[in-house]
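Hi D.,

Good news: the full-assembly prediction came through. Inputs first.
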Amino acid sequence: MEGPDRALHSKVERLHELTVQLDRSVAVVNGQVAAVSTAQQQTRSELAQLSSDFNTFVLRAERTANVQRAETRVGVLESRIEFDFGRYDTVRRTAAGLLWSFDSGLVTQQTVESATERLMLENSRYWLAPAVVGLGAWSGGDSVLCDQAIATAYQLAPARTALLFALILRRQNRQPSSVLWLRHYLRNLDPTALSREFAVVLESVAQGAFGTSGRELIHETVDHWLRTLADDEEAHNAQVKRWRSEIERHVPAGAIDAFPRLQAHSPQWPQLETALRSAGVHQPFLDHYSALLAAEYTPSDRIEDAVDDILDQLVTEYDDEELPLRRELAAEQAIIKHEGDLAAAKQTADAGSAALGNTLDYLTIQTSAALDPAAIGVSAATQQVALASCIDWAQRAHGAFSMGYRSAYPANVEVCFQEQHPFGKNVFTLPPWTGSLTATAMPQLEKSLAAHWDASTGPLLASLQFNMGRELIKPALVAALILIVGIAINPAFGVIAGAAVFGLWYLAINGRRAKAEAYRKQVETALAGHKRKSLEDLRGAGAEYTDLRGAYQSADAKEPQVQALIASFGDLGHDKTPFERRTLSDERNYA
Amino acid sequence: MDFGQRQRRVVGIEAPGQAQRPAQHAGQRTSAVPRLGSREFRKTRSGALTNAVMRLDAAMDEQTRQQLAEWIAGEYAHEYGGAIPLGFLATCYLGPPYVDHRLSLLETIVEHYGPADHVPAPFGEARTLVRSGAYLYVEIYSDGQLVPVRPDGTVVTQ
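Then the structure:
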């Protein structure tokens, strides 16, 4: 009886040892797998960081190279412009000087003739040179040379020549002749392909240089053009598009870092950020255009000065030949301005290139005068007049922009929590939990997230619980066996041996239990901390969303103000420009 | 669907024999695609028109509602370039659980929706615009175009 029992007992013991060994091996493998997984995760995040650092570095290097290249190009272009067209400056200066000498009478006719003829020889292809010769001949009373020179200038640049003489005759108080030249000039213009000097005409309207008859003539022409262009939807849409890009230019840049929790936990963060940024467009736009409208325009003291200013612009503006180089120069300068960001530079250059185009339609002239007066060479006064023509386009562009970001505002804003926390050799993974900040109240969300945490951590903590009952089965069985066998041999010995074996075994198990319990407590405390942090983040994200919503709404509420401001552009064309008062006072002087 | 999310459908009081709408009405209400460029289409909506659209929501009998809808369709046809909207989506002032309602010109019905209700396409697309609170209502056209109307009657077109 004893033999088979012992054999059985030793086999059970052996089996038990094997099981324990297997348990240990599995635990070791588990630990190793967890360690590998943690290491892999760490490697992956380091790799992602490295890749992002590398990309930033490449981008920075590329931009630096772009800026250096652009700086070199700017130098080259500037010297080419100086070399090829620098002499045009001489013509421009002579033309301006000639006009001044007409007034002062300090220069002899002989000097005028020699100076102008030399210019003609040096600049045979530049329209201003024969025009200056014509002026010299006119002052000398040589009508034949004057006619020839004007004919030559007219051939080279008919519109500019007509405008130049219109302005000069206006300066010499020969208003009927000046308006005649002006009519001639306007009649030859195509409203869909205006040369850039038309901006100067707009300027002279703002300055009141052509008196009442000139003003009527221009208004008639412009009204006629507007009627012609009214059905040209494409041209109108192009202006709306330019205004749209002007509005987008005011969208505040830079990272929005006031909402870190929302950024970390809300899948809708990109849309929210875009909406908040876009709604932020109204205030800068209001500031910019209010300042522009409020700017007081100070007119020149004498109408002659004003005409001189316009003449200066006519004779100093870029010639058509210079334009391609000027455009290239503007593009390179934009690259430097945007610190090598080619996309942003292209956007700026494209917005400006419409103004540096060879010909423009009347609507584009108005938009350019309103948006970028310096690019087409008009003054702030003209800009104010031009703004009045842009109301419809600006309102359409602004309305559509606001509609765009409003319709993209997410209807449902969610927060998502999915976390991983290592403990010992293992990793605790919180399965994804998603709640809606817009549809559910915060106390409910908190309750739901807390329940999710408890549901996820419960099984883990339960598995760490030390099962005393199960552990005691084995010692109890062995002790019972010893007791039975011992009693058969010697009852007293059997009882003592059984109790001793059980007691010692129990003490060993109890020691393990205390350790396991301590470990479980430790894990429980750590997980409770993570849960608390999650709930804090949830509350924080909720508060941040309330703030963001408030900021968005208060920024968005300024939209009607912008619409009203744009509508008020219309008031400018009348009382703020020197148009009426200058013309009237001027006419009183001449009466 | 719980109580807070149910739809409230108002089709007016249908007298016997009126349940089937006469065919010519349906035929008249074809919703054309607006020509966005047209100046007529971009014109400010008159006070009478915006009031009529807002009144469609008020409790009234089927016949009055139908007459009002016809008048509205006529206004769009004659005054605003000929494009008649499929209907409108506007903020609902009935209070919770409703947030917005759909006014269909084609079917002459008013449907009120709670925040979680599904609004049929293409009306559903206009919800975020209506919720922004910046517009009186949004006109919805058969090709899916949305044209918000501000409280002063001005419209927003792309």
